[in-house]
Amino acid sequence: MVTPVSRINLAGFDFGAQNDGTYTASNGNPAYPPPESQIDHFLSQNVNFFRIPVAWEYLQSEVNGALNEKNLATYKKYIDQITEKKAYVAIDLHAYARFKGQIVGESPTMPATALANFWSQMGAVFKNNTYVMLGLVNEPHDLDIHKWAKTVNTTVEKLRKKDINNVLLIPGTEYTAMKAFPEWYPAMKDVKNPDGSLDGLVFEVHRYLDSDNSGKDTKCVASHADEVQKLVEILKDDGRQVLLGEIGGGNTESCVKFLPELAEAVKNAYPTFAGLAMWAAGSFDASYELVTTVKNATSPTGWTDQPNWLSIKPFIPAKGSDKGTESQKKEGGKKHNTKTRALLQPLKSLEQSPSCTVQW
């Protein structure tokens, strides 16, 4: 099974992406790409996985069009800086299942193949990098879940038939809220690889701890650890896994209390839960409600971590030398991106780089 991953969101390439599917960044460029110095800052804390949101129109300005070579090169350079240091990346398409304001797979001029087209081009760029996962879409909402399941299946099928075998993160609806997972999972559980296998297909959920799960309030009302157990009960018999791709809370006493309770629940829910990622670091300034680290010229790394991040640090796995069970080593991995054990399946590349593996 999957060794747990400890993750952080580095935002910035997504700035300008609105939840209605529109894009407002001037000239198609994000205002604030995430600071490169944060990569080493978090690597030094044993973070082994980075989720890097990016706006759809930043990379592809027209449906079914070619990718923007200049912007792709900028984004890829950032991804490469992480993976060259033997850490893992989730490319998060921050698009809410929409392109130019239209729901993919529902709007007449926005067919399901639009998403498949984008990912077939992006996947071709990263298919040989086993440290990269593909997050199909961030936080879909207000859509027909059955039509959305067909859209996701269309994308999975196209990628696999092109031998793009990276791990795929599968979102549902309701902004992928963890609380709503039991409602949308029945429609999404049949998302499979063309050969019927489940290898490399992992669900993604999000959870903010303020009163309305929006992440707009700095006060937290509960840990919602009970929701973790509910998902375990649903998924364990199906052999499926899930990543908590965004958790968030402010730098307040209530959040410092509840965030570690949720992190501990996720840790204890392994292997159903493969890990979590805190929202957010990246290009946010010190005034952002959920900022996890702020600039500090006197700090050795140039950054000072905030109470919300510090509260969950005890639940970040320490580096280890676990290379998997003997049966995993003999198997050598299954077909779909099983070359990276620290993610979701045992990966040969990790056996060659044991310092990248982690254990709770």
TrEMBL record:
Q: Where is the composition biased (Polar residues)?
A: 350-360
Q: Which reaction does it catalyse?
A: Endohydrolysis of (1->4)-beta-D-glucosidic linkages in cellulose, lichenin and cereal beta-D-glucans
Q: Which Pfam families match?
A: Cellulase
* UniProt keyword annotation of Signal present: yes
Q: What positions belong to coiled-coil segments?
A: none
Q: What is its EC number?
A: 3.2.1.4
List, in alphabetical order, the GO biological process terms annotated in this UniProt record.
cellulose catabolic process
List residues of the Glycoside hydrolase family domain. 27-279
Compositional bias segments (type: Basic and acidic residues): 320-331
**The entry's keywords:** Carbohydrate metabolism, Cellulose degradation, Glycosidase, Hydrolase, Polysaccharide degradation, Signal
Q: What is this protein called?
A: cellulase
Q: Tell me which species this is from.
A: Puccinia coronata f. sp. avenae
